[in-house]
Design the sequence.
């Protein structure tokens, strides 16, 4: 029986990063993965979708070529070729992660893991036993489904959509979260008729409401039909088509028909069938309960990533993995601050945020002031014809501390890093605006939004803030 300091169940972005960090700290480490290293994120999530979305962005740009004085005929777009390219990207990335695990000295065992005890794992189908002083559960999430709906040729999840080589003429996307709007943008760029159905009042309902409004406007201008405040009554397949019965925001019943339907209503914790219940690990609604050091209710058993239900984001899983391993190694890792972790959506325009929304800050009792800066007033955005959207900041009016940042627009997912750093350092508006931002860059929009919160924006007029500046 092989013995390790740390055994990690699951080789996704939480598991493989935990393994690499554990090996760096001198811990003998093994990863048990039943499918492929990289997990859903690398193989069937983050990476292939971003490759496809870049194809869509290029196609969208070609479709606007006339705006730049470029003229050509017979533009053709092959979705199948884009899918092939996305798989090539995946293969390259998976190979890179496997190499890193090997070079760092972490072992990899292929098979389905089950906890026999808190220190012993059985790996099927061979029945191999692994003993470990500490176990990290990194089994990820499972796609939530609508009751009574079966996946097939007509009804898809994101997993099947990533292999869809032939463009459907029409598609209904059920769920207006990040996955739903990203696929909506992709299929619309390739020419499909797209309808997005969201039960809540806005797309990306976890985002600041102003940002959701801006995104909805942009997607509608692209020709995407939006049905918010719509509750699904039934999804069925008839005559080879998807038929969706729903009630709209006014309670009026409607039916929408399309060639395909994509279900994107969120993820649940992939916690079943691995021995957690028998071991006495606390699980609520499928999610493993953890403390700030990622330890479960059973000492020596840790959990990270989507299976914990904290934030279903790859970078959150990675950070949790590092925290868990450093706790195991006897170090003193910082407590995770899930509110301040960046949240990104990669449609066009992109959406990114960190920290509190305006409504959340007010609910916590802060005296709030906000700053806004539209990309149409930014020189780099104007020069590159990417003027949709804005930067919004939420600031504590009393002390000037930055509480949140919310961006919809070009390269929002990269711009958010500056404000995530500001939040982690508990920076004030003065701290950030004292840093000179190069011109012309998109990053100037972030600084101008912060200046706007003080009534000091230079390139966009705002009413002066009635207080110290």
Sequence:
């Amino acid at each position: 029986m092989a013995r390790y300091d740390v055994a990690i169940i699951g080789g996704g972005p939480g598991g493989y990063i935990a393994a690499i960090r554990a090996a760096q700290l001198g811990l003998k480490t093994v990863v048990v993965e039943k499918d492929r290293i990289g997990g859903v994120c690398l193989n069937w999530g983050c990476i292939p979708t971003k490759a496809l979305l870049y194809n869509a962005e290029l196609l969208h740009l070609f479709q606007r070529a006339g705006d730049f004085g470029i003229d050509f005929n017979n533009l053709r777009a092959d979705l199948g070729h884009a899918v092939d390219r996305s798989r090539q990207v995946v293969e390259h990335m998976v190979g890179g992660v496997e190499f890193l695990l090997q070079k760092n000295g972490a072992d990899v065992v292929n098979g389905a893991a089950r906890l026999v005890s808190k220190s012993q794992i059985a790996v099927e189908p061979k029945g191999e036993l692994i003993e470990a002083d500490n176990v990290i559960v990194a089994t990820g999430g499972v796609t939530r489904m609508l009751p009574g709906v079966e996946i097939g040729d007509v009804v898809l999840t994101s997993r099947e959509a990533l292999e869809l080589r032939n463009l459907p003429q029409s598609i209904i996307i059920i769920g207006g979260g990040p996955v739903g709007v990203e696929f909506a943008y992709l299929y619309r760029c390739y020419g499909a008729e797209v309808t997005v159905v969201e039960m809540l009042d806005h797309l990306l309902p976890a985002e600041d409401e102003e940002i959701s409004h801006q995104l909805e406007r942009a997607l509608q201008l692209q020709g995407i039909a939006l049905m918010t405040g719509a509750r699904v009554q039934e999804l069925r397949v008839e005559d080879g088509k998807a038929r969706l019965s729903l009630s709209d925001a006014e309670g009026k019943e409607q039916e929408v028909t399309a060639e395909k339907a994509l279900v994107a209503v969120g993820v649940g914790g992939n916690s079943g069938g691995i021995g957690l219940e028998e071991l006495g690990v606390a699980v609520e609604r499928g999610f493993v309960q953890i403390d700030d050091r990622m330890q479960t209710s059973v000492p020596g058993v840790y959990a990270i990533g989507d299976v914990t239900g904290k934030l279903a984001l790859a970078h959150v899983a990675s950070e949790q993995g590092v925290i868990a391993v450093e706790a195991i190694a006897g170090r003193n890792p910082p407590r995770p601050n899930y509110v301040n972790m960046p949240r990104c959506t990669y449609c066009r325009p992109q959406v990114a945020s960190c920290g509190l929304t305006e409504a959340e800050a007010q609910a916590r009792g802060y005296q709030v002031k906000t700053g806004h800066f539209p990309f149409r007033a930014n020189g780099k955005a104007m020069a590159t014809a990417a003027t949709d959207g804005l930067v919004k900041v939420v600031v504590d009016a009393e002390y000037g501390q930055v509480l949140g940042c919310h961006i919809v627009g070009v390269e929002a997912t990269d711009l958010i890093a500056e404000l995530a750093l500001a939040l982690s350092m508990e920076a004030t508006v003065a701290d950030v605006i004292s840093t000179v931002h190069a011109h012309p860059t998109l990053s100037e929009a972030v600084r101008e939004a912060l200046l706007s919160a003080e009534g000091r924006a230079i390139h966009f007029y705002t009413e002066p803030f009635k207080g110290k500046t």
